Amino acid sequence: MVHTFEVFVDMREYLEPTNAFQTATTRYEIDAETIRQADYQARSQALRDYPHGAEYDIRVTKVLK
After folding, report:
1. Four-residue CA torsion sign, 17, 18, 19, 20
2. Which end of the chain is more exposed for a tag (fewer CB within 10 A), N or C?
3. Which strand (E) or helix (H) includes residue 58?
4. DSSP 39
5. What share of the chain is helix, strand, coil (3-state, %, to 5)?
6. Average pLDDT along the chain
7. How many Å apart are CA 31 and CA 15, to the nearest integer?
């Protein structure tokens, strides 16, 4: 059975010239059968949305449907 999970992804991007970094948090609604699949899909989506990210922290918080 497919559920809709709420997933937050915290990411850190390092800026080249200054070696400074910026952080951001993005919320996704992921349709998946398991928490593991939701985690994997959210990581894949974050890598596509933020290709220069260096660190990704995935948190599956709850089932929406």
Report:
1. negative
2. N
3. strand 53-63
4. H
5. 25, 55, 25
6. 92
7. 33
Sign of CA dihedral 60, 43, 56, 26: negative
Which amino acid makes up residue 33?
E
**Tokens representing 55?**
């660190």
Q: Of 7, 12, 10, which Cα lies nearest the Cα of 36?
A: 7
Q: What pTM was computed for the model?
A: 0.84
3-state class (DSSP) for residue 9: strand
Q: Domain extents for the chain?
A: 3-63
Residue type, 25: T
Rounded mean pLDDT, 46-64: 91
Alpha carbon distance 42, 5 (integer Å) = 10
Name the 3-class secondary structure at 47.
Answer: helix
